[in-house]
Design brief:
- With 129 residues, the protein is an all-alpha fold.
- It is built from six helices and no strands.
- Helix content is 76%, strand content 0%.
- The protein is globular.
- The longest helix has 21 residues.
Length: 129
């Protein structure tokens, strides 16, 4: 959350290129949605993250909790407080189910989701941007 605008712009370009190569990859869509959020394209981010959720579902996988945190912040930025609060509660519930003993990938996923929860709480409940 603390990178400069140029880093976010570069991340967006990279994610867009990756998405053009693998248009239905939910992990790539998640990264693209995150980059869109970071560059202030909140509605685009929300649309992309919704598509990522659909793609995870079609692949028979549970969506990454990071998606829920990004959606919570996008809803907040789009002045949709009820949806933002609902997403934050959903993220909290997802994190209660996560187990850090499921291996390195699960620990990394949990760590990312916890960091995003803290950021989202700061944005939504603390009024940070």
């Amino acid at each position: 959350p603390d990178a400069d605008a140029e880093a976010y712009r570069q991340a967006l370009e990279t994610a867009q290129r990756a998405q053009s190569l693998t248009p239905n990859d939910p992990s790539v869509l998640t990264a693209l949605g995150g980059a869109q959020y970071r560059t202030g394209a909140y509605q685009e981010a929300l649309d992309t993250l919704n598509l990522a959720t659909q793609m995870f579902g079609k692949a028979g996988q549970e969506a990454d909790p990071v998606i829920v945190g990004l959606k919570a912040m996008a809803f907040h930025q789009l002045k949709q407080p009820a949806q933002a609060r609902s997403a934050i509660e959903q993220l909290r519930a997802l994190l209660k189910k996560e187990s850090p003993t499921d291996g390195p990938r699960a620990r990394a996923r949990l760590s990312r989701a916890q960091a995003l929860l803290a950021e989202a709480e700061g944005v939504i409940e603390g009024g940070k941007k």
